[in-house]
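Please fill in the sequence for the structure shown.

STRUCTURE ENCODING:
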């Protein structure tokens, strides 16, 4: 029994020594395995770059200035309307620079083409429409009530747009400039230059409402001065030569208003009137240059420029087109055609200015 107890005690002591040795082995590295000392952490990890100093937030770029597309519908090509269009474009470019671009279309004298052109502007949603001449204005007014419309080379807006009691402001989305020269002074000019004249023929295109308005006024003015005045209308340029021949057979002097169809066909009238020795008093300078002896006229370039100034104010929000009155030419000039005057033997007073070209 004593031997058995001694044996058990010895076994316990052996197991205790083994346990101690195992504990020391776990706590101390073996001599054969070198101790690894962790390397100092780099100041900046390759995977996590050092935080850069905070930069001040960049200023947001200013909004780009608005760009504008302006549609131009010109009824027909002739010097007066061409000058008005050029003046309009020059004024807008001067005010807005390359912020404005133009979609310029010419209707070649066809009012139906004016409608087609203006409707294309509406479908493109242009920012403003310039309607150069009455047919272009009427087409634009029928096409849109939203896009701003400026007319130029329009004689009388009330007549063109059918506004009774027109007070100078169209309202809505329409305004512009008028080329109306004092019709009473044009009648006075005719009497001043041709005091012996008794019969006056007034030639105009019946398709142009503003031409009808002008000849009616001038006819009344001439008749009040004791002259006989007769109206000679034509529907298009194909009829002009025949009407001009009839007018020359009747008249001592012919009067022509600011009529776009005559202006684009002045050579036809000149080819009849000058050989017949009948002088023509014209409503504007372009017609006078082509077939007339004299005119009381405006600068169509200046008129167009004035319209361009109005357009810039509308596009930039400086003006409200609905309250913008129609503007008129500030001055009128007596002009004469030296070539035709010399050929017909017409003496011109000194206060007249020669038509250029």
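FILLED IN BY: designer on duty
SEQUENCE:
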């Amino acid at each position: 029994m004593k031997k058995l107890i001694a044996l058990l005690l010895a076994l316990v002591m052996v197991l205790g020594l083994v346990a101690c040795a195992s504990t020391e082995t776990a706590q101390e590295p073996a001599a054969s395995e070198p101790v690894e000392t962790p390397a100092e952490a780099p100041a900046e990890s390759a995977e996590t770059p050092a935080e850069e100093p905070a930069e001040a937030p960049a200023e947001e770029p200013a909004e780009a200035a608005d760009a504008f597309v302006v549609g131009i519908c010109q009824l027909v090509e002739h010097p007066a309307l061409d000058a008005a269009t050029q003046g309009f474009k020059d004024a807008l470019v001067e005010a807005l620079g390359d912020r404005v671009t133009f979609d310029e279309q010419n209707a070649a004298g066809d009012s139906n083409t004016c409608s087609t052109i203006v409707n294309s502007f509406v479908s493109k949603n242009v920012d403003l429409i310039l309607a150069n001449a009455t047919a272009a204005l009427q087409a634009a007014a029928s096409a849109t009530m939203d896009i701003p419309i400026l007319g130029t080379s329009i004689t009388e807006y009330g007549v063109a747009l059918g506004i009774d009691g027109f007070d100078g402001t169209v309202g809505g989305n329409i305004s512009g400039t008028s080329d109306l020269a004092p019709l009473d002074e044009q009648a006075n000019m005719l009497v001043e230059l041709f005091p012996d004249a008794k019969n006056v023929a007034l030639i105009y295109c019946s398709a142009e409402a503003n031409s009808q308005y002008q000849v009616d006024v001038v006819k009344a003015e001439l008749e009040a001065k004791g002259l006989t005045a007769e109206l000679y209308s034509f529907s298009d340029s194909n009829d002009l030569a025949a009407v001009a021949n009839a007018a020359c057979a009747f008249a001592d002097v012919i009067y022509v208003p600011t009529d776009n169809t005559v202006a684009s066909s002045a050579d036809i009238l000149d080819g009849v009137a000058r050989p017949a020795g009948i002088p023509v008093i014209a409503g504007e300078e372009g017609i006078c240059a082509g077939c007339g002896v004299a005119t009381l006229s405006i600068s169509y370039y200046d008129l167009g420029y004035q319209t361009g100034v109005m357009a810039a104010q509308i596009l930039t929000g400086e003006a409200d087109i609905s309250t913008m009155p129609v503007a008129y030419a500030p001055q009128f000039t007596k002009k004469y055609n030296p070539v035709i005057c010399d050929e017909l033997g017409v003496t011109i007073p000194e206060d007249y200015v020669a038509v250029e070209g």
